[in-house]
Write a structure and sequence with these properties.
This protein is about 30% helix and about 20% strand. The protein is of the alpha+beta class. It folds into two domains: about 10-100 and about 170-220, no CATH class; about 110-160, no CATH class. Strands 1, 2, 3, 4 and 10 form a five-stranded antiparallel sheet that branches. The protein has a three-stranded antiparallel sheet with strand order 6-5-9, with no helix packed on it. Helix 2 packs across helix 5. The chain is flat.
């Protein structure tokens, strides 16, 4: 454990000291004055050896984040979308606990070929449990036929209604978490549950750090020349024969 700490959850004072003494950082900008639980993940704060530090600085020049951020998805899922973890600060040097929420995207169908989403249902005779839809409802919420407007696929390759409506995660970076909270008024049960939330956040930050250390241990940064196509305009004249 690096960020995560052990503590005696039988003691109310120990738990209050833990949450009130936890490192905090801005949830948006310093002028917003909203803060939440956080960890400083700048390289010199990660407890790396000099050898690891040299490799880490090289790794910063690449798009490495997708290789190590799976713990955030796991944490968000575990919290049923009520909390998530994001980066903030100059050069994203801090991991911050955020309020969040799963919300419906509003899409009703999607293309089985290209994945294009649509805000209207595909009409079929059994589109409702009763099997009857008024013309007004069809005109508003449905399309006749399942041809995809993006790729043109239809039939078994075209659009199909979602079985479960798709959701997206909305994050609320402007909201603080436990800022100026009076924990002495909380019950032991409430406090224990909240301490577990913060400790789970700490654990996820540890997992991200572990992933980063494993990345710089098992991978190296190499340089390669990439040819980038460029569109230019030129003169083309049509001469009479």
């Amino acid at each position: 454990m690096f960020f995560e700490k052990t503590l005696d959850k039988r003691s109310k004072k120990v738990m209050i000291d833990f949450v009130t003494g936890h490192y905090r950082y801005n949830t948006m900008n310093s002028w917003n004055r909203s803060t939440s639980y956080a960890h400083n993940i700048k390289l010199h704060k990660l407890g790396l050896t000099s050898e690891q530090l040299n490799a880490a600085y090289d790794m910063l020049q690449t798009d490495f984040w997708d290789e190590i951020d799976q713990p955030i998805a796991d944490f968000t899922s575990e919290m049923s979308g009520r909390y998530t973890i994001g980066t903030n600060g100059r050069s994203s040097g801090y991991l911050v606990l955020y309020n969040s929420k799963y919300e419906l995207t509003g899409h009703k169908s999607h293309c089985r070929t290209c994945g294009q989403r649509n805000y209207r249902y595909v009409y079929t005779p059994d589109a409702t449990a009763e099997g009857v839809i008024t013309a007004a409802v069809i005109a508003r919420d449905y399309t006749i036929g399942n041809r995809c407007g993006a790729c043109g696929a239809e039939g078994e390759y075209g659009r199909v209604n979602y079985t479960l409506p798709p959701k997206r995660l909305s994050v609320y970076p402007g909201k603080s978490i436990d800022q100026n909270e009076e924990f002495s008024e909380w019950s032991m049960s409430e406090l224990r549950n909240h301490v577990e939330l913060v400790r789970r956040f700490d654990q996820a930050c540890d997992e991200i750090r572990d992933n980063f250390i494993e990345l710089i241990r098992s991978c190296k940064v190499v340089e390669e020349v990439v040819m980038i196509p460029k569109t230019v305009k030129r003169i083309e004249c049509c001469h009479a024969s």
